[in-house]
Amino acid sequence: MKITLTVLLMLLAACGPDVQPADQASERNPADLILMGGKVVTVDPEMAQAEAIAINGHTITAVGSNDEIATYIGPDTEVMELDGRLAIPGFIEGHGHYMSLGRAKQILDLGSVADWNEIVGMVARAVDGVASGDWVFGRGWHQEKWDSVPEPNVDGVPLNDRLNAIAPDNPVYLGHASGHASFANDAALDAAGIDGDTRDPDGGTIVRAPDGKATGLLRENAQDLVEAAIRDYQARLTDVESEQVAREQVRLAGEEALRFGVTSFQDAGSSFATIDFLKKLEDEGALPIRLYVMVRSESNAAMAEQLPRYRMVAEGNDFLTVRSIKRQIDGALGAHGAWLFEPYTDMPSSLGLVLESVADIERTAELAVTHGFQLNTHAIGTRANRETLDIYESVWAAANANGKALRWRVEHAQHIHPDDVPRFGALGVIGAVQGIHCTSDGPWIASRLGEERAEQTSYRWRDLLDSGAILNNGTDVPVESIDPIASFYASVSRMMNTGEKFHPGQAMTRMEALKSYTLDNAYSAFEEDLKGSITPGKLADIVVLSQDIMTIEEDAIAATRIDYTFVGGELKYARGGG
Length: 578
Fold this sequence. Notes:
The chain is an alpha/beta fold and about 575 residues long.
């Protein structure tokens, strides 16, 4: 509720003679905006909790009691009454894919389908609306979440016969929720040149039926074959048309982020060309939220030449920061791509896949040290996590570098051998985890690893925190919804959709979970002096919630909604449009 100055003066007068607006009570400069009458959890260890916030421009001026902040009211101050609601620092998405989020809003959303039949129906309707030869795209399916297993199938995933029947002249390409597998019909396979003689690429698998025919399922790097054909298809667009598509992706991703209270987004990651585009938008003032972008999909040779030119350190009201590199040593557990020490329980012939070689990542690590870049390496399996820690430790030693000061990260850090958990804290390596992955994957992790190995290695947040490690939090959107409340709830409850908790002894406390989404996420991007807490002098990136997630009953947390999202002191989202 917004309050006029006249009404506010009447309320303040009723409170007593010591509470007056700034033009009567002090020589302070009036605030542009005041949020008051709420509960403010600052996440500032020096301040803890307050009732009101004063904002000037894009920064926070003061935080305190209603009486204290009332002294910042001037004739032009806008005052918003929080009505007892909780205000916290804006959520920071600690690991997501920004342009892919926008892209996911443009294609078929397969994230909530019940079974394969539903997907076939969605594709059939899409094919009816396009011309012959046009591609149909979708993303978000996950066979472990279907309510029935299709027949026939290979590894629980159907053959592509039904897609071939409904789309003989339209290539269809459907991405797995994890991003580590895809499903294609024969028209898409033909466009990629995949036939019975095509060999599996390094780090990828073309899944085949017993007769040798490709089923349509492509694991990890095998997706590159089809995606090369997709790039050829998309080259039909003019440069202007391509930019229009990309601008829409930025807009759609920003709208989704703001709706869920996300004011900053750590993008994992983007090419130099995409960074050039984002820089153009920043210069135009057209980025809806703040981006921390990791350089991705560039060769070591290109990075050796270009990294200095692309380094952008956050200052002031910046909306684009580039000071990190993203690498990927293995794939995902769901697609049998996570690199393990011991074979998969449900695929004993496999230890997973190595997507990018240790030697190549070592060279990237050397470049990161040389050019002052953070290195963030995707590692999900036990072997992948150890190899990543070994790379970091070896390169730091050779360069005589202070590893803790570099703040290098392991992205996901999902399945860690018990011997390697203490190394995170000792080395100062940040675990960039996703709370929601734990509860989303939990029901089927044991099918991949067995019960004992799952308990010993999977999502060991309490052990990592006790080792002294910093954890940041996110969703890996569009792998999961960008909703930080869902990931916060998963972090503190470990509650799965089965009604059971996944090894709840490894849960975070509520304050640990909130820090992991705010101040610790800011720390993991070298931005803790600018954001992550409601502290005078920091950016006024603030979220107001419908419920107090710090005190309500645990099972009520998931029903919390975002009421207001402020970025740099500007109201960018209000639930219901108010």
